[in-house]
Amino acid sequence: MIIKILEIRTFLIKLYQKGRFIINPLIRFLVAFLVFKGINSNIGYDTRFTGTTITLLLSVICAVLPSGMTVFLAMVLSLVHVLKASIFVAPLLLILYIILYAMLMRFSPKQAIVSVLIPLLAGKNLHYCVPLILGCTATPLSALPCACGLIIYYMLDIVKAAVARQVQLNLDDMLQLYLDIVNATLANKQMFIAVVVFALVVIVVYLIRQFSFEYALVISIGAGVITNILGFLVADFKYSSTVKIGTLILMSVVCGLIAYVAEFFKRVLDYTAIERVQFEDDDYYYYVKAVPKINLSMPRHNVQRMGDVDTDGEDDEDDYRDISIVGNDDVRYEEYTEEDYNIDTDTSNDENDDSDRFPGISSQKDETDRYSRRRGRYAFDEDKYIGRPSKKASSDDDSDGDGGDGGPDEASESAGVDEIPADGEASDAEVKYVDFDEDDFK
Amino acid sequence: MLNNRKVRIMTQLAIYEKKEGRPDFRLAKYYKMDYARFNALKTILWVTFAYILGLFLFALYKLEYLLDNAMTIDYKALGWKILGIYIAIISVYVVGALVGYTIYYTISRKKLGKYYKMLGILKGMYKEEDEYK
Predict the structure, then answer these.
(1) Which positions ≥6 away from A23 have C-beta within 8 Å?
(2) Mean pLDDT of the A180-188 span
(3) Which residues contact A139 (CB under 8 A, 6 or more apart)?
(4) Distance between terminal CA atoms of chain A?
């Protein structure tokens, strides 16, 4: 079961890598479309901007621009709608947005999209998953845009109620309306409770996620869910807010599951994907396509001959072919536990690998190398290979001659059955499908 | 003949320059404390602006009281109170900004240090090539 899920994840990662340039804008488009649709259905007072054409147009703009633009346009759209309904409330909303940006949002601009996602998800009570996911993937600072989102969500409700009360354009009425808005905001304990509880959830999940013990991810999300439930319950008892306990518990658990799935598939949306770079030196212009390694190979439907008994008692090619299939499966199974995306132009044969000095990518590469070595020790007796040059080593300089992109497939293709040593055993055959460095064989 | 090792290093450098390195290069123009102070200054300006807006909203909320007691209000005490709250808020933000941006700078410089180390290796390789020629 877990293997199947991992295969699905790998499939999605490959799919994402291939179509990253389409999928990313598509996701941004969908998010923007849902956000604008939500605003239009909630406070769509200006009918000129509630049409599908305008919504689609705005979403397309957001699709090709960074996610911060979605936040900006969402705020502008909400202001336009409120301005149409009440010329007095709109400036107040504008001031609120400026204060929120100046004091909270500008410290965590990468997570600014959260401030529009929370109002969108809050309608379905799915906003509990936002702090859980942020705790897993971001820093505690992401509690700030979380707070922004919650304040905007609750403030829009108050503004909606205020706009419904049409007032005359005289100072007394406007002042009274303003007093009502502020009083309603101050009386809205739910908002303050949610801000504090969400911040706590982000911090708790983040802190537990930092530990390296087993199941830290599950435990951190579980702790986040418990913090969420307890926080709202305690606040409910203390301040008599209007929390529906059943919904809170159910949706917190559901959101915990969503957060776990999101974290599990995080790699799919990781921006580490195929890179195309170009540079030059004295002799060449280089147009390089760097393909990240994906360890998990998709299942190969090999046919294992069951009735084939080796009667001659000698090693021959057929014996090793069968063995190699088994070895490949073993290796594939082991590789499930490792996540590495090594951006590398050539992954097959390097005597001197300096990529561990490269920032960011290096740590993952280190892990892979360590892991490969660990597997190497486990998989075969290294002494057998000391002093035995492989075919790859002899053709080092011509490694790029085939024009391959150095991806995992190329590595596995080059590791053929023919390279299996004649005196090898079953464990030796496994080596052929592990992308070892030359260092491992010395 | 292509030097695979060199190509790999140059590729990694190019990817870093293209994506992750951009903010790091911008940041490399500053000394650590200059960077932290500059951002703390920006934070002070933004927070001051937000505080003034908040003060305006609060004054609007208390407008009736202010108009009724315009002659009897102790403006000096009120001013000190407003200043005290402002200093308290600003202090929190400035300390947070100094610490946060210093940490950010340190992390960024570490990444940049690795980048320069890679450049040094590349330079060494060029030197070796030149000697070979």
Answers:
(1) A15, A16
(2) 87
(3) A108, A206
(4) 38
- Map residue A401 onto helix, strand or coil: coil
Count of CB atoms situated within 10 Å of the CB of A408: 19
Residue from A7, A1, A24 nearest A294 by CA: A7
Q: For A4-30, how does the pLDDT look when each residue is reduced to its tens digit (9 = 90+)?
A: 877 787 777 777 777 778 888 898 999
Residue with more model confidence, A203 or A431 = A203
Tell me the β-bridge partners of A287: A278
Of A107, A352, A400, which is closest to B2 when you measure between CB atoms?
A400
Burial A167-185 (b: 16+ CB within 10 A, else e): beeeeeebbebbeebbebb
Which ipTM score applies to this complex? 0.84
The two three-digit tokens of residue A351, written as one number: 């005597």
Which pair of tokens denotes residue A73?
A: 């346009």
For B12, nearest residue in chain A (alpha carbons): A358
Task: Tell me the chain A residues in contact with residue B20 when contact means C-beta distances shorter than 8 Å.
Answer: 359-360
Q: Does residue A125 come out as left (phi exceeding 0), alpha (psi in the -120 to 50 range) or beta? A: left
Q: Do A277 and B15 touch (CB under 8 A)?
A: yes
